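Model: You mentioned two targets. I'll fold them one after the other.
Researcher: Yes, keep them separate.
Model: Target one:
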Amino acid sequence: MSPPPPGGSNGRRHQQQRQEAVSSMESGGGASGAATKRFTWKGPVIVLVFELLESIAFSGVALNLVVYLATVLHGSTAFNAAHVDTWNGTTFIVPVIGAFLADSYWGKYRTILASIVFYLVGLVLLTVSAAIPSLRPATACQMGESCAPATKTQFSVFFAALYLTSIGTGGVKSALLPFGAEQYDDDAGRPERKQAFFSWFFAAINLGIFVAGTLVSWLEQNVSWALGFGIGTACLFVAALAFAAGTPCYRVQMPTGSPLKDIIRVFVAAFRKRDVRMERDEGAAVLLHEDEAEDEDEDGDSAGQQQRLARTKGLRCLDKAAAIIVMDGDKERESEWSLCTVSEVEGVKILVRMLPIWMTCVLYAASLGQMTTTFIQQGMAMDTRLGGRFKVPVASLVSVEVVFMLLWVALHDAAIIPAARRLTGRPGGLTQLQRMGVGRFLVVLALGTAALVERRRLRAIHGGSGPMSIVWQVPQFVLVAGSDVFCGIAQLEFFYGEAPAAMRSICSAFSFLALSLGFYANLLLYMVLAARYTPKQVAAAVVEPMRPSNSGGSDE
């Protein structure tokens, strides 16, 4: 009888589970009988409509959150900014958990359904808290400058609703896009269809942001907050009904296991073998464990599913995880937590090498987070009137940024990239890292412009010349839009292209983690500033003469 492979019975069982998962992927196994379904547009169209309506619902809350906290719940400037960033940070860290559950246990379809329940409950409670007078401070007090803040009960109800929506939207964000892409897996002959789906998906996100930042924001601030939240609730309810009704059209794949376990295994095995020498006494190198399943299939079927990675130099401490130290003649075999394949080790090496770039993404996300906090607070202290009596919703410039992005895309494709091709000789003009660098430079300019506008605004207030027009904020939003065009897309391409095939889903989830940590970095900044300055100093710096004219419409 031939000896078992390295890793013993546990290693064979682990390998068998991986092969079964691949077989399930190939057959399209799932609740909907995906193996027998041919491609139709019904599933992707429902997913796109769902994302459009969900984007309206989420943005209707997120874009105006700092305004609601200030004008309705009467929170202080530091309090509002800190809680908005805490909520945003939580919202974008939940997708990491959602991706793990979707890949390992529930599958994407069930993860979306479970998330919708939390989402709807949160939005309904949010609408109720804005509609019932006892769950918010008196409306008449909003027009004065000495308004008492909301009570603990009122804040508790509001934040409970807010974090329920955070759980819901986090699960949806982690699973909806890959679920929509799965509908094309039997359409390999037409890859442009899947590419078009990605483009339409992000167009749906931006269209939802635009609608929420213009129409919904205007209704919330000028008619009724309850009406605005109610529209978002209705949008998500319709989206949920459409998604459930489209169940027979979907190709549902079973969960195949998260690569997070394999990542942890590499670190555990390397730590256990930290004292192992990679060279024997006679000078020969220690044998390394290769993934035997990749070598067995000469036709390449397995290779198409299991990416084989060659050993590289550097981070040699991780190579110990693949070192074979138990010989075949020994009775005791190494477990899967003591022995990994070279490909698994190299996958972890790639992730470790991407960490420095990922760290800069955290700081970049912290800069972009200013759009939904300090930029809006700055706009609240400015004159929002245009053309006489028409008042621009403070959050509308965040949505108008989508229009600025379209202009930047046209400039990017028509002038910047052709010029870069002539200068560099590269077909793409700029590399992914160069584009990310340009985006980071533009966001620095945007924050510098916002600081100059703020200094001018404060001088105008203290000089007695009255509040500045909100139009002064346009340049900083134009620069942020350019930063998004250069950096946002390049980051997605970089992490998707550099990551091993088996780890691309977890890398996508880590992009949300970077956003989350960026918002938490903003929270730390606000805590430092709050400790440095007294409330009187903050009140003297953040003059709010426009609060009465910008307060939300009456809900009576």
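Model: Target two:
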Amino acid sequence: WGLSPRWGGWTLLVWVAAVTLLSAEGRRVRQPRCPVGCICTKDNALCENVQSVPHTFPSDVVSLSFVKSGFHEITGGSFVHTPALQLLLFTANSFDLIDEGAFLGLPHLEYLFIENNKIASISPFAFRGLKALIHLSLAYNNLETLPKDVFKGMDALTKVDLRGNNLICDCKLKWLVEWMHYTNATLDQIYCSGPPIHQGKKINDLLPNSFDCITAEFASYQSLKFESISVEAFIFGKDQYIVFPQPFAGTCSFLEWDHVEMTFRTFDTIESTSTVVCKPMVIDNHLFVIVAQLFGGSHIYKRDSSANKFIKIQDIDILKIRKPNDVETFMIDGESFFVIADSSKAGSTTVYKWNGNGFYSHQSLHPWYRDTDVEYLEISNKPHLILSSSSQRPVVYQWNRGQKKFDRRTDIPEMEDVFSVKHFGVQGDLFICLTRFIGDSKVMRWDGAMFKEVQTFPSRGSMVFQPVSIGKWQYAILGSDYSLTQVYQWDTKTDQFVQSQELNIQAPRAFSVVSIDDRVFLFASSFKGKTQIYEHLMIDLSN
């Protein structure tokens, strides 16, 4: 049965030829064909009216185009099976979304044209991995913005085309203006579709400082487990303190900042009865506190630094101050005063003056008017008081320097039932916030002769409408016993307040700002719930 050498050689030759033929046939079978709906030439492919991105193309295709396709998005990893692509074009398609990682697996792609489609949204990482891309066109789509750093890592880019979109040049697009100023890529002239301040301008002409993108909000920071009717912040001995009158507990509660725990903690208390106001007053480095009570009279305490406690030094005339509702402190010509608004029928709002040893009654203002609030302010550099009353319109008093007393000057017309008045200034103009419990609270501006209405705010159980100034931000906070507290921010473009935030505070009565350790806090007293502390935080809208 042995074969001769000649027959053995022929057999081996036939076997090798058969294996080679089968191997070649196998390679031809595995070679991808041109997908249905596409036309393929030697190195190009054109797909029209396809419903999805095909996953198989001939391996020598380096240019791929999609026209009038029916798919609605380019999903992640759509082209991982065509790594040799150098040019990719989409035009007149119906998709409106480019997903994250849509073009992963294309290390050689140099030209990407996505034009005349309906794209409204692009993932921040849509172009991830396109390190060789030199030309990108997103022209004539429905783009209003682009996600920040969408071109990150595309260092080879030399040309970007964004024409024909409706780009809104707001803070979300500030990054693009910044990128345009340091990239080596060139962009055709493109125009802003909004906002009004930039509408019609060339994006190429904008600068990063063309955008005002820093805003702020109040974020809940700490909740205090007590009710309070007002709040006062003060500095004594270079330290910052806050004091709350607690009418139900019968105390003035003082807080200080814990620099280690980063919270506010108890510093001291003054025991009292039905406390409505605890007003601090620093005179010649001595701390005094006017404690106004509904029952048992009102008193003045002094901080004894050696004994490290508060000591009562004086009683306030109970015949004049029967039902105190507010206390204001102020200085005129180097002399220290405070005034107590009395809300009883038999009492009288009274000004007290420091004489070096104690406080004595300096002037009684109108009696029998049931005053609910007193505000000290300067109008045209002259000291004034505004008294709010449940029985008449707010009355304006002016300091008479010759008599060293306040004279009635005028009232604020058409403003009955005002509970309180608080003032603030913007760019040299004087404004006041007038609080009404039900109806409309108002903001008014001093025009040189009288206060005139600027803006109205619906009040639903409001006991406080307080202006708050923090850095360049001017706020007005309108409390409510029946709804959420509204925070308004001053808009310098319209010279009016605009709504910016809502706070959930039960029966708010007063607000006070404290700056400490480069942080700013807003204290909100609550008459029927927990007293709240908020931190004022900066927010960059361009991030």
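Researcher: Noted. Anything on target two?
Model: Residues 5-30 form the longest helix (26 residues).
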